[in-house]
Amino acid sequence: MEIKHNNKTITYNGEDIINILKEIEVMLESLHYMGSYYADNINEKRQEYEKETTNFIDNSLICDRLASIRRKLIESFDLELGDDDLDDVERACSDIEIWSKPGDYLKEFWL
After folding, report:
1. Is 90 exceeded by the pLDDT of residue 41?
2. 82, 91 Cβ separation under 8 angstroms
3. 53: enclosing H helix or E strand
């Protein structure tokens, strides 16, 4: 996929990046600690682990945090629409696989 020239190199404010990294760190480390907490008894406590994970995602506003990260990263892009009526970010994300039903798991990495 070809992106606009002015979207090939983007500069971000260091403070914004630090805040993004803090958001990612709290999510990643919390999920890691949760997994470690239940690791020894995962077979017996699978439902408790799954409930705690879901509660953490809901009560810690993980979706809102991720949306804020996305908003902050996108704001530096030139979002002018192309001939296909999509901007570079929309175009890049238009064909990615997302969860749609139980049993769908995402295994593609882009970094």
Report:
1. no
2. yes
3. helix 46-59
